[in-house]
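User: Fold this; tokens only.

Assistant: Input:
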Amino acid sequence: MTFRSLFAVGLLLSFFSCSNKEEPSEIKSTSLTADSSSKAIPEKGVEFISIETPKGKFKVWTKRVGNNPTKKILLLNGGPGCTSEYFECFENFLPQEGIEFIYYDQLACGRSDNPNDTSLFDLGRYVEEVEQVRIALHLDSSNFYLLGHSWGGILAMQYALKYQKHLKGLIISNMMASCPEYGKYANNVLARQMNPKVLDSIRTIEKNGDFQDPKYMALLEKHYYSQHICRLPKYPEPVSRSFDKTNRDLYVIMQGPSEFGISGKLTHWDVSKDLKNIQVRTLVIAAGYDTMDPKYMAWMSEVMPHAEFVLCAKGSHMCMWDDQGAYMNGLVKFVKGNK
């Protein structure tokens, strides 16, 4: 679900006509690719939001980019435990389309407080955190789009099932609605595409629980992540920066120590039977080489009453980077299609 040395413990669970009747222009990938350095994000638009938790008050970091009273996208990053920095490529596309978006580091991630209390690593609590952030940012059904990528997709779906009345639109990016099905796809489809000797070596290391073995990370990075996480020759700098800051404790507790199967708190998470209850307009974004089954994600869009589907055929789990044109065109068309 979504890295350098952090991949040794797994990866990220591990994304039509507008109101003024103008169609968004066709988007092509920008020059900000694997060999580019991202520009420093200015402090303008930054707001620390106070949230209540069962263990007291803490602050989470947010940053607005742009200003549109009717189109505001709150970004939920993956991991769990990564930072929102890997969304920096959005700055090259959404502002020029007049779409506001908001970075947000979840509690215990990135620039937000880290209580160092594992009891707070809970899906239900994170749903309530998102709701508190929504209220503080004055988001409502007239303007509020929620985009969840990978683990953020789990959080977005769970939020929508409880609070969809506050949403104008939902974007599920690169996340299946069932962790058991995600695990099956990894084990029964993607793992079998690997060289049998390589897969046997990986399984042996996993069986022994030796996840810190450098060989384990090297094998996964060469034979799996380069194919299914990001297919660019080198991770874009914002992606590396985000992954390098991943809260390992949060990731392992929620996802487990390995990508091949899931053993954390999210092991049995499954809302596939509840998707029909999400009535808000929804966009499901999948990728041809993702760790998530694109056929399953197409099915998700079919069972949701008001859902649309975008396939980034050339992309992987980070298809906002390795198939930018398809990803951003689909996203912009969806958002500008709401009056």
